[in-house]
Amino acid sequence: MTTKGHIYVIDDDAAMRDSLNFLLESSGYKVVLFDAAQGFLDALPGLLFGCVVSDVRMPGLDGIELLRWMNAQHSPFPILIMTGHGDVPLAVEAMKLGAVDFLEKPFEDDRLITMIEFAIRQAEPAARNEAIAQDIAARVATLSPRERQVMEGLIAGLSNKLIAREYDISPRTIEVYRANVMTKMQAGSLSELVRLAMRAGMLDD
């Protein structure tokens, strides 16, 4: 069954979590509930891209500290902050730290859904780019030290013969390494390998 996206609700109020769970699942979202920000952060490495809906005032790590942590990690997950009445200064601070928007409790269901749809739509391109970058980095990590050297030689524009001379091995052996590099990096051509190297930060100015 396809979903409209993943939503991660963080609130220490069990009644609020249950209410949001019902609303968001009824609207077609896959919902995961957390009663504390630390629990969410512990689970984050294994979570699929989605929108975070977090209360601002919570015991332990609060919504503001959560935003600071997500900022420091350059997380692509968009965050909506829920605030109590009179918490506008906190909401403003949350926005400065990168929250997409804030809602004052109690809020209308339709407004929350509209904001979630906007937040996901706005953040998806960055999340896709981040996923691609991680995938390329994972490919680079599969290269042996020698394959990495050969790849660096190739993207520097060196011929097989020059790379072979650089490392005092035969051009024939370089051809084998080159084939391994192209396979592991999933590159169909040298130009594609260069593009992948750029995305992996191997061609920094």
From TrEMBL:
Coiled-coil spans are: none
List modified residues, type 4-aspartylphosphate.
55
Which SMART domains does the record associate with it? HTH_LUXR, REC
Q: What is the name attached to this protein's record?
A: Two-component system response regulator FixJ
Q: Which organism is it from?
A: Bradyrhizobium japonicum
Domain HTH luxR-type: from-to ranges: 136-201
Taxonomic classification: Bacteria, Pseudomonadati, Pseudomonadota, Alphaproteobacteria, Hyphomicrobiales
- Keywords, alphabetical: DNA-binding, Phosphoprotein, Transcription, Transcription regulation
What CDD domains does the record point to?
Answer: LuxR_C_like, REC_FixJ
Q: Where is the Response regulatory domain?
A: 6-120
Q: Which domain of life is it from?
A: Bacteria
Q: Sorted alphabetically, which SUPFAM superfamilies does this protein's record hold?
A: C-terminal effector domain of the bipartite response regulators (SSF46894), CheY-like (SSF52172)
